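Reviewer 2 asked us to include a model.

Predict the structure of this chain.
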Amino acid sequence: MTNNLISMLAIGSAILFGAMSPGASFLLVARTAMSSTRGAALSVAAGMGLGALVYAGIALAGLHALFTVIPSLYTGLKIAGGCYLLWLALKMFRRPPDRLIDSAVLGEVSALKAFATGLVTQISNPHTALVFASIFSAALTTNIQPVMYVILPLMAFTIDMLWYALVAVLLSTDRSRQAYVKYRKVIDRLSGGLMAWLGVRLLLK
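Predicted model (structure tokens):
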């Protein structure tokens, strides 16, 4: 029991630090929080959490071994993920710069659409599954107890969702939105550029 607790603590810490590192997921939550409603940003955070749960589950199921046996599968998923991030970047670049933010605009993004965007963004990078597989391999023994197949994916979901929910709450304040309105064109261009760089980086990795 003690060994399981130590393993869970190590895995949880690794997942948290991974979620906290800047990337496409953080960028999407932050931008949604500033440019849309807090509810939409929290929905994106929930989508991120579900994506982490999915990848944690398939990592435990042996996706790393599958990628090793069928390298083209990983390549195909990586290309699809990179193209999706480039598409998000294009949407940011093409957004009209003179569009003002008001209460009607803030309500445009539905919770379901925001959730789906968060989920797809999280699973657009198959490298995440390999990261989970590496964390699990380092912290767990070869004889994984059945209960861990339930606990670890749920833990990944909880940690990712709570972290991105915190980001959503902190950046959805009036001050953050006022800053976004003031520097919207610059923020959109920088966000689009960073998203494009992440997409190209994924394609070339």
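Residues 2-14+33-204 form one domain. The CA atoms of residues 15 and 50 lie 14 Å apart. We have added this to the supplementary material.
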